[in-house]
Amino acid sequence: MKEKKRKRPVRGEMGYLDSQKKYRIEKTLLYVFIGIAIFVLGLCLNKFEKTNIFTVIAVLMVLPAAKALVGVIVLFPYRSVSSERVEKVQSLLSGEDVMYTDMVFTSPDKVMFLAFLVIKQDEILCLAGREKEDLRYIEKYLREELKKRMLSKKLYVTAEEKNFLERVAHAEPAKEISKELTAYLKSLMA
Questions:
Q1: Which of 3, 36, 84, 105 reaches 20 to 30 Å from 181, CA-CA?
Q2: What is the 3-state secondary structure (H, E, C) of the chain?
């Protein structure tokens, strides 16, 4: 029997950040190598004259390579959450609760990292991924983004894992979660 190829984790799943870093580095290198290959091909076909259409095309390959490199730079400082921590949070979920992990949000001012985001019946509970995260800014950013889509819920953001776990354990389990809410939160992730 053929072994199934393991698919890459999607936004909000365990291992997403580590997988994306590797993928985006490979993508950046691919663009660079394609640009170099086009440039060398142009040189070979045009008697080593740099002034040809292939040089222009090779220079244009810098744009997607630069965009891919920005994606690498944004995610590089962050690591995926350990499977033990994910299992601990998953054990506290019930009903239709939704949990996302490995979440990097970007705003015009900051890059923010959440280790966990849990959606319960009437609130969204977040655990910052680093101690130095600006919790007020994260809360304000998420509240405003959700308000724009009229998806407001109570929002709780903390850097203390113990407080987060207690809150998740005692919050009312979700009976139903809006697909629009989950889709929008995923769309905000880098």
A1: 84
A2: CCCCCCCCCCCCCCCHHHHHHHHHHHHHHHHHHHHHHHHHHHHHHCCCCCCCHHHHHHHHCHHHHHHHHHHHHHHCCCCCCCHHHHHHHHCCCCECCEEEEEEEEECCCCEEEEEEEEECCCEEEEEECCCCCCHHHHHHHHHHHHHHCCCCCEEEEECCHHHHHHHHHHCCCECCCCHHHHHHHHHHEC
CA 106 to chain centre: 9
Q: Is 98 exposed, middle or buried (0-12, 13-18, 19+ CB in 10 A)?
A: middle
pLDDT in tens, 40-77: 999 999 888 888 899 999 999 999 999 999 999 999 99
